[in-house]
Design a protein that fits this description.
The chain contains seven helices and 15 strands. The strands form four sheets. Strands 5-4-13-12-7-8 form a six-stranded mixed sheet. Strands 9-3-6-14-15 form a five-stranded mixed sheet. The longest helix is centred in the N-terminal third of the chain and has 52 residues. The radius of gyration is 24 Å and the shape is globular.
Length: 334
Amino acid sequence: MSNQVRRSGFTLVELLVVIAIIGILVGLLLPAVQAAREAARRMSCSNNMKQLIVALHNYHDTFRRLPPAGYYRQDVPSSSWSIQARLLPQLEQSNLQNLIDWSLPYSAQGHVARTRVPVYICPSEPKDEIRPSPKSHDPDFAHYPLSYVVNVGEWFVYDPRGGMGGSGLVYPNSRTRLASVTDGTSNTLAFAEVKAWNPYLRDGGKPSALGAATPRNPGDVVALGGSFKTNSGHTEWVDGRVHQTGFTTTFGPNTRVIFTQNGQQFDVDFNSYREGKSITNVTYAAVTARSYHTGGVQVSLADGSVQFLSESIDLGVWRSLGSRDGGEVVGAID
């Protein structure tokens, strides 16, 4: 008579129960893991912004003024290197800045424009990648995006005819000093987050006169029109123009400015006429602070602090924070 060996194991029902339990545990743990990762990314983002505002203060200590949003000639159209390019040495990027020939436009220096500057990229930015430029004569020319941009005011940005700039911390050809921030550095925005690869409207030429009122709502901005670019806003850290390296307080953080084309909706920025493209056209802009962090945006204030501001912040308070010398009393904002 042969011996029979009894083998133990899972039945199909037991296996299914175990799989179900594992699935439930994963479902419970996954949100916690994702929340922990987001908290870490948000902390890293805050650290980036802290480095940026400290760099701005160090620049001010060295040159006794803040760098402008860009330098533009008033006799002929011109482009300009960004404030981010001028802050490179204060961010331990002197080697990169040493590659820049300031006498030449950034469009002729793709070896610089295509360089990724880690401190300029939010870790939550999903398109942390190079942007080839199809219009360049140099096949290797490309740009790299950024997540942190400078405050150039509420709506009006620049008038090349008189050299007048907007109400922000800086503006084109500005020579702002911290002493001229009479609203108080703790009440004035310096930098804010934006989303890279953002669509925008540009160069429609409206408004065309000085003194144009700030738009009441996003629909008013979209109605002004312009040439539509699907995904290249905030993709050029070297470019001093507002839709690339600046923001305005026209609308509050994460406000959706919807433009529809061919049945598809886009959340856009707006630049009435790009700085430096003309020596007569005024620049107005609605370039919104946006973030991939839920509920608001990271900002740095001119006093050197970094805060996370809710997207539900009062619009009047937000606009007051965008002004360097408007005489507003903001009060507590956190």
